[in-house]
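[User] Could I get a sequence and C-alpha coordinates?

[Assistant]
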Amino acid sequence: MTEQPIRTERRGGILIVTIDRPQVRNAMNAAAARGLSDALDTIDADPAIFIAILTGAGGWFSAGADLKVAAIEGSSGATTERGAMGMCRRPPAKPIIAAVEGIALGGGFEMVLACDLVVAAEDARMGLPEIRYNLIANGGGLLRLPRRIPPNLAAEVALSGQPYPADFFHRHGLVNRLVPPGQALDQALALATQLLANGPTALAATANILRRATSGSEEEGWAAQRELAAAALGSADRREGVRAFVEKRPPRWTGK
Protein backbone atom coordinates (compact mmCIF):
# COMPACT_ATOMS: atom_id res chain seq x y z
CA MET A 1 0.00 0.00 0.00
CA THR A 2 1.35 3.42 -0.93
CA GLU A 3 2.31 5.50 2.09
CA GLN A 4 0.12 8.55 2.70
CA PRO A 5 2.39 10.53 5.01
CA ILE A 6 0.12 13.58 5.30
CA ARG A 7 -3.58 13.47 6.21
CA THR A 8 -5.98 16.40 6.15
CA GLU A 9 -9.38 16.87 7.78
CA ARG A 10 -11.84 19.73 7.40
CA ARG A 11 -13.62 21.10 10.47
CA GLY A 12 -15.65 23.99 9.09
CA GLY A 13 -13.19 26.80 8.36
CA ILE A 14 -10.32 24.85 9.97
CA LEU A 15 -8.04 22.41 8.16
CA ILE A 16 -6.21 19.90 10.38
CA VAL A 17 -2.98 18.70 8.77
CA THR A 18 -1.49 15.56 10.36
CA ILE A 19 1.97 14.13 9.74
CA ASP A 20 1.26 10.39 9.67
CA ARG A 21 4.53 8.47 9.91
CA PRO A 22 4.40 7.44 13.59
CA GLN A 23 6.62 4.40 12.95
CA VAL A 24 9.54 6.83 12.54
CA ARG A 25 8.23 9.44 15.01
CA ASN A 26 6.82 11.41 12.05
CA ALA A 27 10.25 12.06 10.55
CA MET A 28 9.94 13.89 7.24
CA ASN A 29 11.01 12.35 3.95
CA ALA A 30 10.47 13.65 0.42
CA ALA A 31 6.91 12.31 0.19
CA ALA A 32 5.94 13.87 3.53
CA ALA A 33 7.45 17.22 2.59
CA ARG A 34 5.62 17.23 -0.74
CA GLY A 35 2.37 16.21 0.94
CA LEU A 36 2.70 18.97 3.52
CA SER A 37 3.54 21.54 0.84
CA ASP A 38 0.47 20.46 -1.15
CA ALA A 39 -1.72 20.76 1.97
CA LEU A 40 -0.45 24.30 2.54
CA ASP A 41 -1.19 25.14 -1.10
CA THR A 42 -4.76 23.99 -0.46
CA ILE A 43 -5.00 26.20 2.62
CA ASP A 44 -3.85 29.24 0.67
CA ALA A 45 -6.07 28.55 -2.35
CA ASP A 46 -9.34 27.64 -0.62
CA PRO A 47 -11.30 30.73 0.51
CA ALA A 48 -13.38 28.56 2.86
CA ILE A 49 -10.32 27.61 4.93
CA PHE A 50 -9.45 30.34 7.43
CA ILE A 51 -7.10 28.65 9.93
CA ALA A 52 -4.85 25.56 9.86
CA ILE A 53 -3.61 23.25 12.60
CA LEU A 54 -0.44 21.19 12.14
CA THR A 55 0.00 18.10 14.31
CA GLY A 56 1.44 14.58 14.26
CA ALA A 57 0.03 11.08 14.59
CA GLY A 58 0.78 8.51 17.27
CA GLY A 59 1.68 10.88 20.09
CA TRP A 60 4.58 12.51 18.25
CA PHE A 61 4.83 15.86 16.48
CA SER A 62 7.94 15.24 14.37
CA ALA A 63 11.53 14.12 14.81
CA GLY A 64 12.52 16.32 11.86
CA ALA A 65 14.22 15.10 8.70
CA ASP A 66 14.41 11.33 8.21
CA LEU A 67 18.13 10.87 8.85
CA LYS A 68 18.03 7.17 7.96
CA VAL A 69 16.98 8.15 4.44
CA ALA A 70 19.64 10.87 4.43
CA ALA A 71 22.34 8.40 5.50
CA ILE A 72 21.47 6.09 2.59
CA GLU A 73 20.70 8.63 -0.12
CA GLY A 74 22.76 11.61 1.05
CA SER A 75 19.63 13.72 1.64
CA SER A 76 16.18 13.13 3.11
CA GLY A 77 14.73 15.13 0.22
CA ALA A 78 12.46 16.89 2.71
CA THR A 79 12.62 20.22 0.91
CA THR A 80 10.18 21.81 -1.52
CA GLU A 81 9.69 25.29 -2.93
CA ARG A 82 8.19 26.10 0.49
CA GLY A 83 11.53 25.19 2.08
CA ALA A 84 12.69 22.55 4.52
CA MET A 85 10.04 20.04 5.68
CA GLY A 86 7.73 21.43 3.00
CA MET A 87 6.89 24.62 4.93
CA CYS A 88 9.73 26.22 6.89
CA ARG A 89 10.64 28.94 4.41
CA ARG A 90 7.09 29.74 3.31
CA PRO A 91 4.31 28.74 5.71
CA PRO A 92 0.70 29.33 4.65
CA ALA A 93 -0.52 32.90 4.34
CA LYS A 94 -3.31 32.11 6.81
CA PRO A 95 -2.78 31.58 10.55
CA ILE A 96 -1.44 28.14 11.51
CA ILE A 97 -1.35 26.58 14.97
CA ALA A 98 1.11 23.84 16.00
CA ALA A 99 -0.43 21.15 18.23
CA VAL A 100 2.60 19.43 19.79
CA GLU A 101 2.67 16.06 21.51
CA GLY A 102 5.77 14.00 22.27
CA ILE A 103 8.76 15.52 20.52
CA ALA A 104 9.45 18.30 18.03
CA LEU A 105 13.14 18.07 17.21
CA GLY A 106 15.33 19.50 14.49
CA GLY A 107 13.17 20.15 11.45
CA GLY A 108 10.16 19.23 13.56
CA PHE A 109 10.91 22.14 15.88
CA GLU A 110 11.56 24.36 12.88
CA MET A 111 8.04 23.56 11.68
CA VAL A 112 6.73 24.61 15.10
CA LEU A 113 8.67 27.86 14.82
CA ALA A 114 7.11 28.49 11.39
CA CYS A 115 3.64 28.38 12.98
CA ASP A 116 1.94 31.45 14.45
CA LEU A 117 0.68 29.88 17.68
CA VAL A 118 1.77 26.83 19.67
CA VAL A 119 -0.27 24.52 21.88
CA ALA A 120 1.95 21.90 23.55
CA ALA A 121 1.45 18.97 25.89
CA GLU A 122 3.13 19.29 29.27
CA ASP A 123 5.41 16.32 28.57
CA ALA A 124 6.43 17.46 25.07
CA ARG A 125 10.09 18.18 24.38
CA MET A 126 11.52 20.45 21.68
CA GLY A 127 14.97 21.39 20.48
CA LEU A 128 17.57 21.67 17.72
CA PRO A 129 19.90 18.64 17.97
CA GLU A 130 21.61 19.23 14.60
CA ILE A 131 24.80 20.58 16.14
CA ARG A 132 25.38 17.25 17.89
CA TYR A 133 25.87 15.70 14.44
CA ASN A 134 27.87 18.62 13.06
CA LEU A 135 24.82 19.76 11.11
CA ILE A 136 23.22 23.21 10.92
CA ALA A 137 19.58 23.95 11.73
CA ASN A 138 19.15 25.76 8.42
CA GLY A 139 15.36 25.37 8.14
CA GLY A 140 14.78 28.70 9.87
CA GLY A 141 15.35 27.55 13.44
CA LEU A 142 18.41 29.74 13.99
CA LEU A 143 16.58 32.73 12.48
CA ARG A 144 13.23 32.40 14.23
CA LEU A 145 14.13 31.07 17.67
CA PRO A 146 15.98 34.25 18.85
CA ARG A 147 12.85 36.23 17.89
CA ARG A 148 10.53 33.97 19.88
CA ILE A 149 12.51 33.61 23.13
CA PRO A 150 15.34 35.71 24.64
CA PRO A 151 18.41 35.51 22.37
CA ASN A 152 20.72 34.15 25.08
CA LEU A 153 18.29 31.30 25.76
CA ALA A 154 17.92 30.65 22.05
CA ALA A 155 21.70 30.39 21.89
CA GLU A 156 21.66 27.86 24.74
CA VAL A 157 19.07 25.70 22.97
CA ALA A 158 20.86 25.85 19.61
CA LEU A 159 24.42 25.43 20.91
CA SER A 160 23.64 22.65 23.39
CA GLY A 161 21.68 20.55 20.95
CA GLN A 162 19.61 19.23 23.85
CA PRO A 163 15.81 18.86 23.95
CA TYR A 164 14.03 21.16 26.40
CA PRO A 165 10.65 20.58 28.07
CA ALA A 166 7.58 22.40 26.78
CA ASP A 167 7.34 24.21 30.11
CA PHE A 168 10.68 25.94 29.38
CA PHE A 169 9.30 27.32 26.11
CA HIS A 170 5.99 28.21 27.77
CA ARG A 171 7.73 30.23 30.49
CA HIS A 172 9.74 32.12 27.88
CA GLY A 173 6.83 32.89 25.57
CA LEU A 174 7.10 30.46 22.66
CA VAL A 175 4.28 28.12 23.75
CA ASN A 176 0.91 29.85 24.02
CA ARG A 177 -0.94 27.10 25.86
CA LEU A 178 0.49 24.25 27.92
CA VAL A 179 -2.04 21.42 28.23
CA PRO A 180 -2.26 17.89 29.70
CA PRO A 181 -0.76 15.11 27.56
CA GLY A 182 -3.07 13.96 24.79
CA GLN A 183 -5.01 17.22 24.63
CA ALA A 184 -2.87 19.35 22.34
CA LEU A 185 -5.05 18.89 19.25
CA ASP A 186 -8.33 19.39 21.13
CA GLN A 187 -7.03 22.57 22.74
CA ALA A 188 -5.63 23.81 19.42
CA LEU A 189 -9.09 23.27 17.90
CA ALA A 190 -10.64 25.24 20.76
CA LEU A 191 -8.18 28.08 20.13
CA ALA A 192 -8.81 28.01 16.38
CA THR A 193 -12.57 28.06 16.94
CA GLN A 194 -12.14 31.12 19.17
CA LEU A 195 -10.17 32.86 16.42
CA LEU A 196 -12.83 32.01 13.82
CA ALA A 197 -15.16 34.55 15.41
CA ASN A 198 -12.96 37.20 13.78
CA GLY A 199 -12.89 38.35 10.17
CA PRO A 200 -10.98 35.78 8.06
CA THR A 201 -9.32 38.21 5.65
CA ALA A 202 -8.19 40.29 8.62
CA LEU A 203 -6.91 37.13 10.34
CA ALA A 204 -4.70 36.33 7.36
CA ALA A 205 -3.47 39.92 6.98
CA THR A 206 -2.77 40.27 10.72
CA ALA A 207 -0.81 37.00 10.80
CA ASN A 208 1.35 38.13 7.89
CA ILE A 209 1.94 41.60 9.35
CA LEU A 210 2.99 40.03 12.66
CA ARG A 211 5.39 37.67 10.87
CA ARG A 212 7.03 40.47 8.93
CA ALA A 213 7.20 42.70 12.00
CA THR A 214 9.47 40.13 13.65
CA SER A 215 11.49 39.14 10.59
CA GLY A 216 12.89 42.46 9.37
CA SER A 217 13.34 46.12 10.21
CA GLU A 218 10.50 48.26 11.57
CA GLU A 219 10.35 50.16 8.27
CA GLU A 220 10.00 46.89 6.34
CA GLY A 221 7.21 45.94 8.72
CA TRP A 222 5.37 49.22 8.05
CA ALA A 223 5.69 48.75 4.29
CA ALA A 224 4.38 45.19 4.49
CA GLN A 225 1.56 46.28 6.76
CA ARG A 226 0.34 48.86 4.25
CA GLU A 227 0.15 46.28 1.47
CA LEU A 228 -1.43 43.48 3.52
CA ALA A 229 -3.87 45.67 5.43
CA ALA A 230 -5.11 47.31 2.23
CA ALA A 231 -6.26 43.95 0.86
CA ALA A 232 -8.11 43.06 4.06
CA LEU A 233 -9.68 46.48 4.50
CA GLY A 234 -10.94 46.47 0.92
CA SER A 235 -12.53 43.04 1.24
CA ALA A 236 -16.17 42.03 1.29
CA ASP A 237 -15.59 40.54 4.75
CA ARG A 238 -14.59 43.94 6.07
CA ARG A 239 -17.86 45.42 4.81
CA GLU A 240 -19.79 42.48 6.26
CA GLY A 241 -18.07 42.96 9.63
CA VAL A 242 -19.13 46.61 9.77
CA ARG A 243 -22.70 45.75 8.72
CA ALA A 244 -22.92 43.00 11.33
CA PHE A 245 -21.73 45.39 14.03
CA VAL A 246 -24.30 48.00 13.05
CA GLU A 247 -27.07 45.39 12.78
CA LYS A 248 -26.05 43.72 16.07
CA ARG A 249 -25.80 40.23 14.59
CA PRO A 250 -23.06 37.62 14.10
CA PRO A 251 -21.09 38.24 10.90
CA ARG A 252 -21.38 35.83 7.98
CA TRP A 253 -17.83 35.48 6.70
CA THR A 254 -16.99 34.40 3.16
CA GLY A 255 -13.21 34.69 3.14
CA LYS A 256 -13.36 37.24 0.31
